[in-house]
């Protein structure tokens, strides 16, 4: 890639902001597309509830947030900063080592402002299509839309030499698969399902603590071999079961251990799926079993590198060392170095 080339970055969350900064440092001309009206990505809290929280209706309005109001980080702030921009305590902010999500958003807002990234971000712009101009070219067409006058959608097509996808992985819900479906209104008993990944247990545990003082009963489905029904010692109205077998039309939830609960609400804490509805790659890039591929180091599709890349895809991170976000920062620098070799 040449320094005069235009690069499109999809998303202004943590990955998008770091990518934009590294690209600008190398004097690339960067345009960041962000469909929300602020930076932050998954850290931008929205109190609205989706009209179709199960994600069944393809035409539903998507509420772009995966936060719950009381969420606090589960990592100390000193390992969530960047190499040259630490996540320090600021006057008037949340001084805790494990602050609430509002503090993380302020940190990302400050980062975008201090490095002059805001001028490169198009807020309220949803990307509809990313597609190669032709097979012989590395150029990409990016089609986006935004609300114009009288709240009408206005679409626009532009050509970029490279595209970096930083749209995150916390938009499309991953629903536990079992027969039946249940909806309820008056909440007296809540059944909670926990997902496959250990990281997903964190949000389920948080929500369990919040709903147990309000609900008559809370029943938690846990995936694991030979798991037996038991009551949680620290909660007077909470039980753990094996995973859900099915949800009946009469409202009964049947667990794999044979126990049955008459539940009003079923909360899926089963995480999210990778979802790139805008990407047209002629089958080169696929999502199968919630894996994106083929990608070298989870970043470059080999046949399209370095003109198309992904940042922020890995789900699992080794938390044993204090460089969680720093590792991502190194990844952005590596992306730039690979691109420079193609000049």
TrEMBL record:
Signal peptide: none
A GO molecular-function annotation: monooxygenase activity
SUPFAM superfamilies in alphabetical order: FAD/NAD(P)-binding domain
Alphabetical keyword list: FAD, Flavoprotein, Monooxygenase, NADP, Oxidoreductase
Presence of keyword Flavoprotein: yes
Gene3D superfamilies reported in the protein's UniProt record: FAD/NAD(P)-binding domain
Pfam families: FMO-like (PF00743)
Names of the cofactor(s): FAD
EC code(s) of this entry: 1.-.-.-
Source species, domain of life: Eukaryota
Broadest EC class assigned to this enzyme: oxidoreductase
InterPro entries assigned: FAD/NAD-bd_sf (IPR036188), Flavin_mOase (IPR000960), Flavin_mOase-like (IPR020946), FMO-like (IPR050346)
Family: Belongs to the FMO family.
Protein name (record): Flavin-containing monooxygenase
Natural source organism: Theobroma cacao (Cacao)
Highest classification ranks of the organism: Eukaryota, Viridiplantae, Streptophyta, Embryophyta, Tracheophyta
């Amino acid at each position: 890639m040449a320094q005069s080339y235009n690069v499109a970055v999809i998303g202004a969350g943590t990955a998008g902001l770091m990518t934009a900064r590294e690209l600008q440092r190398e004097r690339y001309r960067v345009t960041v597309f962000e469909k929300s009206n602020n930076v932050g990505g998954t850290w931008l809290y929205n109190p609205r509830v989706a009209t179709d929280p199960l994600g069944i209706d393809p035409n539903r309005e998507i509420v772009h947030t995966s936060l719950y109001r009381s969420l606090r980080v589960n990592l100390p702030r000193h390992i969530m900063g960047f190499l040259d921009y630490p996540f320090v305590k600021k006057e008037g902010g949340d001084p805790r080592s494990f602050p609430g999500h509002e503090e993380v958003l302020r940190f990302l807002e400050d980062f975008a402002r201090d490095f002059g990234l805001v001028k490169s971000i198009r807020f309220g712009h949803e990307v509809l299509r990313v597609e190669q101009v032709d097979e012989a070219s590395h150029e990409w067409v990016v089609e986006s839309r935004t609300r114009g006058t009288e709240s009408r959608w206005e679409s626009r097509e532009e050509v970029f030499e490279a595209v970096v996808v930083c749209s995150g992985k916390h938009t499309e819900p991953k629903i536990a698969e079992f027969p039946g479906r249940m909806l309820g209104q008056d909440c007296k008993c809540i059944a909670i399902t926990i997902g496959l990944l250990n990281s997903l247990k964190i949000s389920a545990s948080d929500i369990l603590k919040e709903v147990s003082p309000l609900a008559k009963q809370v029943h938690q489905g846990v995936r694991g071999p030979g798991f037996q029904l038991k009551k949680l010692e620290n909660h007077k109205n909470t039980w753990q079961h094996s995973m859900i077998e099915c949800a009946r039309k009469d409202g009964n939830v049947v667990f794999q251990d044979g126990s049955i609960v008459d539940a009003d609400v079923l909360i899926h804490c089963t995480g999210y799926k990778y979802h790139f509805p805008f990407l047209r790659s002629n089958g080169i890039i696929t999502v199968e079993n919630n894996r994106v591929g083929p990608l070298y180091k989870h970043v470059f599709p080999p046949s399209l590198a370095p003109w198309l890349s992904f940042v922020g895809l890995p789900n699992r991170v080794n938390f044993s060392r204090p460089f969680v976000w720093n590792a991502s920062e190194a990844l952005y620098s590596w992306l730039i170095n690979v691109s420079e070799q193609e000049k």
